[in-house]
Amino acid sequence: MTITFYTKNHCPLCDKAHKILEELQEEVSLEIRKIDIYQSEELIEKYGLMIPVITAEGEEIQYGQINKESLRKRLLTINK
């Protein structure tokens, strides 16, 4: 499964979320597609106040303060 991880530089919440995603890769087959929102005005407008944002199959599944356990459950549900 490919997930998209919207992030920006110098973002402690983003760093923490990325670490959680890397840990979950050991349990769930994930490809992490990392996108800096500052590549696009549209992304800044859409996600500027929400980042980090994790999407899968076009759906936002978590944003802001990422919770590892609920994210794991959500990813396992999507991956079925």
TrEMBL record:
Pfam families: Glrx-like (PF05768)
Gene3D superfamilies named in the record: Glutaredoxin (3.40.30.10)
Superkingdom, taxonomy of origin: Bacteria
Name recorded for this polypeptide: Glutaredoxin family protein
Organism of derivation: Fictibacillus fluitans
